[in-house]
Amino acid sequence: MGSESSSLRRRRIASFTPALFAVILLSLLIIGRYTENGLMELTPVTYEEKSLPNIKSSTPSVTRSPHRKLLNHQEVKEKEKEKEKKEVVEPNRIWSEKCSKSDIVISQGATEALPNGIPTYTVEIMNVCISGCDISAIHLTCGWFSSARLVNPRVFKRLRFDDCLVNEGKPLVNGRTLSFQVFRVTVVFRSSAGIRYVRPYYFEFISHAKNRWAGKTIVDLFADEFKGGLEIIMYVSAVKAGRIQVDGKIVPVSYVVQPSQKISHFLHRHEPPVMARDVKILRTEPDVVTVCKPASVPVHPCGQYRKNTVVGILQAEHDLAPIFPIHRLDRLVSGLLILARSASKADSFRQQIESGEVKKQYVARVTGVFPEDEQVANAKVNYNAREGKSTVEVENGPNGKSPSKGKDACTKFTRISTNGTQSIVLCEPITGRTHQIRVHLQFLGHPIANDMLYLSECITHRSVEGLSADRAAAKSTVPIKPSHSEVHVPHSTDEPDEDFNIDPMCTNCPNLAPKGYDGDEEGLWLHCIRYSGPGWTYECPYPEWASLS
Question: Per the database record, which ranges form the Pseudouridine synthase RsuA/RluA-like domain (predicted)?
Fold first, then answer.
């Protein structure tokens, strides 16, 4: 029995020996990961980073980013716990965990042109707030017509800086392609004969394919949908040269467009000129800026205008950005313009305007002797966007009524002075319809004296003869004939402009102004002088033409 039991024990031990050796070996492997000071740091996981394109840059220089190792989330938590235990602060940490715009290093400059001739401007951004911590490093590259990829978006959700708006102000997402809008870098103004020009620049027009565009070739799409007076061969050349792209890629002329695709058209843009008058800053406050807008200059980018605007000029010449206009002024109207310095302040102003708490005052120079007592034009205004003109609805139907297409509009007028031929009138619009003051003055028989759109000799003549203003306006069918001389706008300069490169594919080059521009830049005799609301008033000086002496 004794020999049997010892033999059984030996067999059992022998059967457990391989498992025991395995346990010991595993323990040794685990123990091998330890040191006297505890658990060693795990080797950081390396994420392969694509190198930046090899581009030659001019002053200021654009540097390449070094390879970086990014730690995963678990490793970061372990490192933070270790630091809390040892109470050790990283030597390169500048301040706390939060960063500000001032902790961003930006290298930017003009870079080598693309193969298709389009120049580029590159911006590199590096976050140095925590220079010793790789995981918080941000590095972007942007160009006029290219995109960049975000390496790591841990610190900043939104970032604005001088020449680019990152991701159109939307939250940054890791791995997504970012879009950039370059604004200030190409603004070069020139003045000639009292006219302000913008040096022609490259611009990317973006559209997203509609369902009805699906199935068309890229060339047919532009020939059918974007009728800009160009021959089809121009679109073929643009596609081949990469001036027309789909989803950021160059495509063949036979490419068939699919719904929702991004269609980009890169053009050498020539903006119409404006009168060379300064945008005078009247008042600067922490959240509001008021300016005196010159006539002929649009308030914000619209139509063919982008940089030759009040917003563009203030950004380029006074470094005011972002700014938000809180009310409208027609392009040919001058005077007070209020701009908020934040979106929230702009919304506050707009709410006051919409609720009727804001009083607006303009001054106009009109034809004839305006009545001495206060006049109120309470007539609906209908704006025709195709014609760019408003009309007043009058009661001329069988029951004294006409079909209602216009919107309610009311304007008060008070004569300030007269010389027997023309009058200076204070205008107070109660509502805010397009061209309301102009069309209401026409309705009363006293249009603005240099308003070629609404100045009709027959209305003034009939009102003088005793015909009521509303009947005169209703029966008038005589077309308006301009009587003033047009301002001559030169289409080329005598002296060469080193900043102006001729684009062989541009139909407007070598002209500064776009071809076909009529050169009519005379401002209206209509000027905004005052806006006032609950607890605030902003004013603008009267214009020179407001004096009849």
Answer: 287-442
